[in-house]
UniProtKB/TrEMBL annotation:
<protein>
    <submittedName>
        <fullName>Glycosyltransferase family 39 protein</fullName>
        <ecNumber>2.4.-.-</ecNumber>
    </submittedName>
</protein>
<feature type="domain" description="Glycosyltransferase RgtA/B/C/D-like">
    <location>
        <begin position="45"/>
        <end position="197"/>
    </location>
</feature>
<feature type="transmembrane region" description="Helical">
    <location>
        <begin position="301"/>
        <end position="323"/>
    </location>
</feature>
<keyword id="KW-0812">Transmembrane</keyword>
<feature type="transmembrane region" description="Helical">
    <location>
        <begin position="143"/>
        <end position="168"/>
    </location>
</feature>
<keyword id="KW-0328">Glycosyltransferase</keyword>
<feature type="transmembrane region" description="Helical">
    <location>
        <begin position="225"/>
        <end position="244"/>
    </location>
</feature>
<feature type="transmembrane region" description="Helical">
    <location>
        <begin position="106"/>
        <end position="131"/>
    </location>
</feature>
<dbReference type="Pfam" id="PF13231">
    <property type="entry name" value="PMT_2"/>
</dbReference>
<keyword id="KW-1003">Cell membrane</keyword>
<feature type="transmembrane region" description="Helical">
    <location>
        <begin position="65"/>
        <end position="86"/>
    </location>
</feature>
<keyword id="KW-0808">Transferase</keyword>
<dbReference type="GO" id="GO:0016757">
    <property type="term" value="F:glycosyltransferase activity"/>
</dbReference>
<dbReference type="InterPro" id="IPR050297">
    <property type="entry name" value="LipidA_mod_glycosyltrf_83"/>
</dbReference>
<dbReference type="InterPro" id="IPR038731">
    <property type="entry name" value="RgtA/B/C-like"/>
</dbReference>
<keyword id="KW-0472">Membrane</keyword>
<feature type="transmembrane region" description="Helical">
    <location>
        <begin position="180"/>
        <end position="200"/>
    </location>
</feature>
Length: 554
């Protein structure tokens, strides 16, 4: 029987529905489930479409399948629509695509594990269909399809900008087309609600992706990027865009999207960690080019040797994700098995108390999903925050009895060995207090001398609806002020100051001034910055003030 694209679509859909139902949630997926508890036009880490997907599916099936349902359907539809870009009457190319889809590790992973890449790929295929029609007719349906799919790509993941940018670079004539510009204006208008949300929240997502992920130059991330992409794409496909000779403007766009994507993230890896799935927009262009590349009879054996064997590896990976056929326990965490048991064990000692997972916002979401009880994470604010801070979840914990859970032992903690073979350490804190959302302002002098003694007025404000206290409240130590001095972005000194009386109370909406007197260490001459925060061990240090510039002179 001839296998048609519709037959393959049904097979692919059923396969991934079964996989989604029998694979436990990953930490990222649980975090997106947390998003979906309240639908908004944007979230700290991503645009909003992924939350909408989870909300719809989870309303139908309140389990792992529900979280992934819409993603699985969109992925299957994107594969089906991909054949709209393959000329009918070329059954060999169809068969090649079937084989590559089953053999491509990254595409198989994204087919059931929910990431923003899932809807991005679906709307990307619609963009390609619209662009191909635009090259042929440049009519209104093509304009509408390009404009709407561009907006929806951006609502899924900002990587949609790369798709449009590389398409434009492959065909600069588009700059002279009023209808192409009309499609871009339409995309911008449709994307305005999200931009409005960003503006209202001081652009947290843009700041995070442009600043919060970057580090100084390092070869470590570059080597990790290269080592991940080869197995994620496969040795039989990753080289194709670099050797393929394009035949028309559409294929030139496909080629430049592939090469541009790999090159862009190669450059990004010089200063930031690149997740293996960030190159997902190269997958479908790669399939289309590779199906043309391998249709030549002389490359049949090459396809069978380089591409098809990966289908077996993908099958083993799928089975492992469902049934743990290998006892893998990487760095004391099995990312795919045992989370339900882990959550049950923690909930056994926590009872109905909220559980705070320090700065681990992914584990807090997993706990909430599998236990049905409150799990919260609080980021220190030094490099990044999370949706928990954006929704001000911290305030809900103040004054309550809270269970603090961390991976490593700390003063007063007890050890718990969970049934997923992960050891955690916990501490029950009565009358919990934390200070991550508390503004601190310091009047640090603009010019000092190395070794000077300085007295700095510290103003602490309380934006909460409850009183702010500084008592020890069962913790090993009372909260204390700390400061960090940096030069050229590098930390040169850190100190702790005991300036908060344990009986100090700041009423809701009020503020209080404290005096911090300390002696500066030996510092180099020149420009420095100083930041202040509140230390309340065993919680992570809270960075509460803006960095202030000062100069050290003679």
């Amino acid at each position: 029987m001839k296998i048609r694209p519709l037959h393959f679509f049904i097979f692919w859909l059923v396969l991934n529905l079964v996989q989604a139902a029998f694979t436990e949630l990953t930490s990222d997926e649980a975090y997106y489930w947390f998003y979906s508890r309240s639908l908004e036009w944007g979230y700290y880490d991503h645009p909003p479409f992924i939350a909408l997907m989870v909300r719809i599916g989870y309303a139908l099936f309140p389990n792992e399948l529900g979280v992934r349902l819409v993603n699985v359907i969109l992925n299957a539809l994107s594969v089906l629509l991909l054949f709209r870009l393959v000329p009918r009457g070329e059954p060999r190319r169809d068969l090649l695509i079937y084989g590559m889809v089953l053999s491509l590790p990254l595409l198989n992973y994204l087919a059931f594990i929910i990431f923003p890449d899932g809807p991005l790929l679906f709307f990307f295929v619609l963009f390609l269909i619209g662009y191909k029609r635009f090259l042929e007719k440049e009519d209104l349906p093509a304009v509408l399809l390009i404009g709407c799919s561009t907006a929806l790509m951006l609502y899924s993941k900002y990587h949609g900008v790369l798709v449009v940018g590389f398409t434009l670079l492959s065909n600069l004539r588009l700059l002279r087309s009023p209808r192409f510009w009309l499609s871009m204006v339409l995309a911008l208008v449709l994307f305005l609600p999200h931009l409005g949300w960003q503006y209202a929240h001081q652009f947290p997502t843009f700041q995070f992706h442009l600043q919060g992920r970057t580090t100084s130059f390092t070869t470590r991330y570059l080597l990790e990027y290269l080592s991940q992409q080869l197995p994620a794409i496969g040795p039989g496909l990753i080289f194709v865009p670099f050797v393929y000779r394009t035949r028309d403007r559409f294929e030139r766009a496909l080629q430049l999207i592939c090469i541009g994507t790999f090159g862009f993230f190669l450059f990004t890896a010089l200063k930031a960690f690149v997740h293996f799935h960030w190159t997902s927009i190269a997958l479908f262009p790669l399939l289309l080019l590779a199906s043309r590349f391998y249709e030549a009879e002389q490359r049949k054996s090459l396809f069978q040797f380089l591409v098809l064997p990966l289908a077996f590896a993908v099958l083993v990976l799928r089975l492992y994700l469902m049934f743990r056929i290998f006892p893998v326990n990487h760095l004391n965490v099995d990312y795919y098995h045992g989370r339900r048991l882990w959550a049950e064990d923690i909930q056994g000692v926590a009872g109905d108390r909220p559980v705070l997972f320090g700065d681990n916002f992914r584990e807090s979401s997993l706990y909430a999903f599998y236990s049905g009880h409150m799990g919260i994470a609080l980021q220190s604010g030094e490099r990044r925050r999370s949706q928990y801070e954006l929704w001000n979840q911290e305030d809900s914990l103040q004054g309550r009895e809270v269970v603090l859970v961390q991976d490593y032992p700390f003063a007063g903690s007890k050890e718990l060995r969970t049934r997923m073979d992960k050891t955690v350490h916990y501490f029950i804190a009565p009358g919990f207090s934390s200070y991550y959302d508390i503004p601190v302002e310091a009047a640090f002098p603009p010019a000092v001398k190395s070794g000077d003694s300085v007295t700095v007025p510290i103003t602490v404000s309380n934006p909460r609806n409850t009183a702010l206290r500084f008592a020890r409240a069962g913790f090993p130590q009372a909260p204390a002020l700390f400061y960090v001095i940096r030069k050229d972005g590098r930390e040169v000194h850190r100190g702790v100051l005991d300036v908060f009386p344990e009986d100090a109370v700041i009423p809701p909406g009020g503020q209080r001034e404290f005096k911090a007197s300390f002696q500066l260490p030996s510092l180099e001459e020149g420009a420095h910055t100083v930041s202040f925060g509140i230390r309340y061990e065993p919680l992570l240090d809270s960075y509460n003030s803006k960095a202030q510039a000062f100069r050290v002179g003679r």
